[in-house]
Structure formats: structure tokens, C-alpha cells
Write a structure and sequence with these properties.
alpha/beta; Rossmann fold; Glutamyl-tRNA Synthetase, domain 3; 2 domains; three-stranded parallel β-sheet; three-stranded antiparallel β-sheet; 8 helices; elongated
Length: 317
């Protein structure tokens, strides 16, 4: 694990508008914000609403209001993936032109018995890799998959978790970049967005670690630079489930300081000696940014939130 490189740093926080921000969201936001500001870097906000059916009306406004109330100050305009389909389409066109993407007419139910890779995902068996078979050719809807070669091993070094390697062909197979319902997949959208926003450093939850090799593969194929990655521990509840909208994680409380201090402690950051005397969030951020220490981050993928914050009581423990 090392400090961010000396070049100009541009980070980002990219929540999905499926509901209000919760403590798990705050952990990632705090880590990415401190990591950027500690080296004088920029910090952008992106609303990742490419999955339109999961997005809730008004949730994006609620997220931005919460970030403001918690003292986060972002650089530049907020980018929304729902406005960027044309950019993703151009990227897909490039992959198709280079014969690295192909149409697929397979239904989800037909893949239920495919073998699982190391990460538990179904490995696409290649049914449509050489053209859509005649027995499913009448289907109107088509997804688009990228063609993964048998030697597609991606290695990178995470700033916290160290050397990472994934054999995409063995563990994932030809993955989807545009869904059959016409929506672009997260893997393609995030790669295009990071490149066009010139994001140099991605700080996010360790639940997205397994996606990173796919994104690096796409960066290579599209001629984009590869970001530096830092995956911080995610918060899990008493049953070991990731804090999320699906597990009914409580929305962040109106009062920001207890939650901010709890997220700071969750990440094992240095004690803030004036913690009991912070009058407002600006004082917290001044102290936190000055004290931020990536070297102290717990080098694990997940941690129980009970060690720092009780979402039900919404107070530090």
C-alpha cells in the first residue's frame, strides 16, 4: 500500500440513486474525499443511474442534499449516466468494429446451469460467440457481450489490498456491456465515465474489487488510461450482509457529526483530538483531511458496522 502518486489527482464518488445514502455509502464517500483532498486533488460526484429501473425518482436530489449537509464539496458539475447513452454507444461501436463485441440472444434462464467462476458469477458458455444459433435467432432482443480471449489475465496492484490477478476467461467469460433491454451495463458505463472525466484515482468499496479487472480490460481495448485503485472495507450488518438498500440499511441521520466520526473510526483512522469539540462539519473536515492516513486502513474486504456505528440507533457506539 502506498500514497497516491505525485501527479495531479482527480477522484470521484459515484452513488446509485436507488434510495438515500446510508452508513455504507458514507464510508466510501469519506475515504474517497479525504484521499483526494489530502493531496490537494479534485473530487467529483457522479450519479450512476444507468440502471434506470432501479433508480428512484428524487433519490439523486436527496443524495446531493445529504452530501452538502455532511460538508462534502465537489468540483465541477454533477455527471449523470442517464444523460450519457450516446457516449456509451460510441464506445460499444468501437468494440463491435474491432470484433471484440458481439450480439447475444441468450435468455437469463438459459444460463442458470452454467458453471460458476471464482467470484460466484455464471461463466458465459459462448453460445452466441460465433453467431446467434438458429434455434434462438427469432428472438428480437439482443444483448452485447465482449469477446474474451483465453489468455485474458489482468493483474493490478490495489493500494490497500496489494497484488490482484483475475483470469477473466476462466472466472467470468464473455461479459455483457449492453443489456437485452437496451440499457448499457455498469462495466462499460463506468469505464467511459472515468476516462472522459479524467479520473486518476478510484477509491471505493471492496465489494467492487472483482469488477476492476473487467474495467481494466475495457480500458485497454478502448485505449483509455488505467486508474489507480484503492478498495476500502465495506460495512456489513450482524448477519454478514453488506449495508445496502436491499438489506434495508438505515438512511444517514440528519446530524452529520456522529456519523462522520463513526465512519472515521470504522476506517481505523488516527484519533481526532478535538473530536468532542467540533462545532460543525467544516472543523471535522479540516482535521480529518490533515490526519488522513491510507496506511492505517484495515487491509480486509469487510468489517461489521457494530464496531463503529449502530444504524438502528443512528449514534456512534
Amino acid at each position: 500500500m502506498g500514497a497516491p502518486p505525485s501527479r495531479h489527482y482527480r477522484g470521484r464518488f459515484a452513488p446509485s440513486p436507488t434510495g438515500p445514502l446510508h452508513f455504507g455509502s458514507l464510508i466510501a464517500a469519506l475515504a474517497s474525499y479525504c484521499d483526494a483532498r489530502a493531496v490537494g486533488g479534485e473530487w467529483r460526484v457522479r450519479i450512476e443511474d444507468v440502471d434506470e429501473p432501479r433508480s428512484r425518482a428524487g433519490a439523486d436530489d436527496g443524495i446531493l442534499a445529504t452530501l452538502e449537509r455532511y460538508g462534502f464539496a465537489w468540483d465541477g458539475p454533477v455527471l449523470r449516466q442517464s444523460d450519457r447513452s450516446a457516449r456509451y454507444a460510441k464506445a460499444l461501436e468501437r468494440l463491435v468494429a474491432s470484433e471484440e463485441a458481439y450480439a447475444c440472444a441468450c435468455a437469463r434462464r438459459e444460463l442458470e446451469h452454467a458453471p460458476e467462476g471464482a467470484g460466484g458469477e455464471r461463466i458465459y458458455p459462448g453460445t452466441c460467440r460465433h453467431g446467434v444459433p438458429s434455434h434462438i435467432a427469432e428472438r428480437v432482443q439482443r444483448a452485447w457481450r465482449v469477446r474474451i480471449a483465453t489468455d485474458s489475465v489482468i493483474s493490478f496492484r490495489d493500494r490497500l489490498l496489494g497484488a490482484q490477478t483475475q483470469d477473466i476467461a476462466r472466472d467470468v467469460g464473455d461479459f455483457v456491456v449492453k443489456r437485452a433491454d437496451g440499457l448499457f451495463a455498469y462495466q462499460l458505463a463506468v469505464v467511459v465515465d472515468d476516462a472522459e472525466q479524467a479520473i486518476t484515482d478510484v477509491v471505493r468499496g471492496a465489494d467492487l474489487l472483482a469488477s476492476t479487472p473487467r474495467q481494466i480490460w475495457l480500458q485497454h481495448r478502448l485505449g483509455y488510461p488505467t486508474s489507480t485503485y484503492l478498495h476500502v472495507p465495506i460495512g456489513v450488518d450482524g448477519e454478514g450482509r453488506k449495508l445496502s438498500k436491499q438489506t434495508h440499511a438505515a438512511a444517514l441521520p440528519h446530524d452529520p457529526l456522529p456519523a462522520l466520526l463513526a465512519a472515521w473510526r470504522f476506517l481505523d483512522q488516527p484519533p481526532l483530538f478535538a473530536a468532542e469539540r467540533f462545532a460543525n462539519v467544516d472543523e471535522f473536515w479540516a482535521a480529518a483531511i490533515a490526519a488522513w492516513s491510507p496506511q492505517r486502513l484495515p487491509p480486509v474486504a469487510m468489517l461489521p458496522v457494530e464496531r463503529a456505528f449502530d444504524p438502528a440507533r443512528r449514534t456512534p457506539v
